[in-house]
Amino acid sequence: MNLTLNIWRQKNNVDKGGFREYKVSDISKDMSFLEMLDVLNEQLAEKGEDPVHFDHDCREGICGMCSLYINGKPHGPLQTTTCQLHMRSFKDGETITIEPWRAKAFPVMKDLVVDRSAFDRIIQAGGYVSVNTGGVPDANEIPIPKRIADEAFDAATCIGCGACVAACKNASAMLFTSAKVSQLAMLPQGQVERKERAEKMIAQMDAEGFGACTNTGACEAECPKGISITNIARMNREYFSAVVSSENV
Amino acid sequence: MSWVSKTLNSTLGRKLMMALTGLFLIIFLLGHVSGNTLLFKNDGGEAFNIYAKFMTTNPAVKILSYLTYISVIAHVVYSIILTKYNKSARPVAYANSKASTNSSWNSRNMGILGTIILIFLAVHLQGFWYKMHWGDMPVVSYGGEQYKDLYTIVNFAFQSELLVALYVVAMGFLGLHLSHGFQSAFQTLGLNHVKYSPAIQKLGLAFSIIVPALFASMPIYIYFINMN
Ligand code: HEM
Ligand code: SF4
Ligand code: FES
Fold first, then answer.
1. How many CA atoms within 13 Å lie on the side-chain side of A145?
2. What does residue A73 show for φ and ψ, rounded to 5 degrees?
């Protein structure tokens, strides 16, 4: 395949940045999207140019490190992670536009790399549970109905990639935050900090500058892990009941 | 900041206000459209005028109408706050965005739809509501009692094609606003449930078609009965 790539280049956090066009040729249909970018970067390195910076780690669709807004959609045309996207999803001769996630809370650091530590701070604000010190507890000591365990697990499959924020017209982090609130709110282990968690995580989400939710459903449609917006409804319930009943004045 | 103002200034608190005021306005629309169907009664406007007097004088209705004014104002104020805030969350726009592949147009343009409804509301209130309350009105009497003749005002107003067209078009936009807003308000309130959500979706769709269509049929009906 021969492709034209229209890539966002930005030197650093303060640079204005802009698009640059690149050509790559002889790309195999079986390459992943990131491997295609590796080919481009080898070309650039040979010419002594600065390679295109992009985030990645596992390349297995489990770590949530890869990002990229490809041809108008987060993680490209399929509902998967960019590392799991293959070049067979594109046509020979196509022009592919590649942009970083766009959100005030995700500042661009360089080229396509954005700083997603805002997500870490939301987790730090309340995405944890209290545990007893002492002996190792027995596995399955606390009975949890299978249906609840499954639902909590579904929420827990969020890999924190930020595609929901990237897809949302408001750059809202509701889907991510609701998945993290939900996975713990449903389990017995999560009850100790339940109210505090909802209040603190949402306060942090707001402090980071993520937008509010208009319930467009774009996040759910683009999430590579299929996190459902029923989690957002649950988070809203958690939050509203927490603010009226907690001791936090 | 107290916990109340902190909550109302949070993203979720603001959305809660949008949802509650929006739902109240939906109930208002239901009442408004039901009462106005009296316009279809072939009695020279008697039933409609009696109803209009009741709506402007009954103390219980007065309380509801103040709640409606407050809801409209709060809904608009919060919509401005939220829309501005949401815009600021993405200072740099995408050069290439295929948002239409993941969400509906109306859900992404509630602010534009609302603004059109607001413009319509200004014209609508100026034409009927303001006149009824403070304007010079013709008077009719039924059974010895005096009534402001709102029917004649309505009847006269809808002989203008332009006004009829404005009403019909505005109701189309209201329908678009409601087809997203109705179910969205329930999601905001946290009411997303396998048992009830499908029914809420269907009810919302039916409401957003039937109610604006009924409203739109009124000026059309009056326009045509006056043509003959
Ligand atoms: C009779 C008139 C109206 C009704 C029944 C109505 C109803 C609703 C409902 C039910 C919602 C959904 C709330 C939610 O998502 O939780 C909504 C959202 C919205 N409305 Fe209205 N509305 C009306 C008029 C207006 C007007 C006049 C404006 C503004 C000028 C407006 C602006 C908005 C905006 C911007 C949203 C979306 C807020 C967001 O981003 O989440 N609406 N409306
Ligand atoms: S909810 Fe989905 S899109 Fe959002 S961070 Fe988690 S995995 Fe990514
Ligand atoms: S690189 Fe780990 S999910 Fe894509």
1. 4
2. -140, 140
Enclosing H/E stretch for B180: helix B161-188
CA of A208 to the centre of ligand 2 (A): 17
- Give A207→chain B minimum CA distance, Å: 9
- Say how many Å lie between the CA of residue A62 and the centre of ligand 3: 6
> Does residue A54 sit in the same domain as residue A136?
no
Which residues of chain B does A249 touch, with a Cβ-Cβ cutoff of 8 Å? 2-3
Residues of chain B short of pLDDT 70, as ranges, are none
Domain count, chain A: 2
Task: Please indicate, yes or no, if residue B80 is contained in any of the structural domains.
Answer: yes
Q: Taking Cα atoms as reference points, which of A68, A223, A209 lies closest to residue A155?
A: A223
Q: Are residues A48 and A94 in the same domain?
A: yes
Q: Which ligand is nearest to the CA of B187?
A: 1
Domain of B216 in residue numbering reads as: 3-87+107-227
Work out the average pLDDT over A85-92: 98
What ipTM, to 2 d.p.? Answer: 0.94
For the stretch A69-72, contacts whose Cβ atoms lie closer than 8 Å and that sit 24 or more positions apart, written own/partner, are A69/A98, A69/A99, A69/A100, A69/A101, A69/A102, A69/A166, A69/B94, A69/B96, A70/A33, A70/A96, A70/A97, A70/A98, A71/A96, A71/A97, A71/B96, A71/B98, A72/A97, A72/B94, A72/B96, A72/B97, A72/B98, A72/B99, A72/B101
For chain A, say whether B162 makes contact (Cβ under 8 Å): no
Instruction: Determine the atom of ligand 3 nearest the C-alpha atom of A161.
Output: 3
3-state secondary structure of A55: coil
